[in-house]
Design goal:
Shape: globular
Strand content: over 45%
Low-confidence stretches: none
Largest sheet: 8 strands, antiparallel
Number of strands: 15
Radius of gyration: 18 Å
């Protein structure tokens, strides 16, 4: 079935990367995020369903504001299977960017993915404190953790091939008392250099 992981086969070498919050259980010390959970697929006739499969049992969308210059919505995820926890995300979309909040019960770091190569060449990736900026021809995209304070973002893990180039994980640990992260995503357009 469809999933949100990229990487070469065998599948054990694939990474599931999605912007938002991740968590782990003390029992196995393995990080999880929404990218690891998928919709239910009925097993083939000769196979049995696996109760530990990570499944999105339900997703409840609520639109709280819908105007030409502003949209606000939230999504509550009911996850089941190995390591599942309730997750809620909310987004406010305006011309100035996207403000988001991701929440989960338990310890959680903030995480996103950073495009480090656009398929033609490496791009400038600058984590600095609570901000990650990716610059490439045409502009700069900045992801800023606005709450809690003191989050130090860093690029980790392997470069993973995607349809648009290579990405790497960008993570920042949240204090244990903060099972939610608030963030802002902004785009600064810049003129493209003309080809000569």
């Amino acid at each position: 079935g469809p999933d949100r992981s990229y990487g070469p086969h065998p599948r054990k070498d694939m990474w599931a990367l999605t912007p938002g919050i991740q968590w782990k259980n003390a029992a196995d010390d393995r990080w999880r995020g929404l990218a690891q959970y998928h919709i239910f697929h009925k097993p083939k006739p000769d196979e049995e369903a696996n109760n530990a499969d990570p499944i999105v049992k339900n997703a409840e969308l609520t639109v709280t504001d819908e105007k030409p210059d502003r949209v606000a919505l939230s999504v509550k995820y009911d996850l089941i299977g190995d390591g599942a926890r309730p997750v809620e995300e909310s987004f406010v979309i305006t011309k100035d960017g996207v403000d988001g909040t991701s929440a989960v019960k338990g310890d959680a770091p903030a995480a996103t993915r950073a495009l480090v190569n656009d398929g033609a060449s490496d791009v400038e990736v600058s984590p600095s404190g609570n901000k990650l900026t990716v610059r490439r021809p045409g502009g700069a995209l900045t992801w800023e953790v606005t709450e809690p304070s003191g989050v130090d973002l860093k690029i980790i893990g392997p470069r993973v091939a995607t349809h648009n180039g290579f990405v790497q994980a960008c993570v920042g640990d949240l204090p244990n008392a903060s099972p939610q992260v608030k963030w802002k995503l902004t785009l600064q357009a810049a003129p493209m250099a003309s080809a000569k």
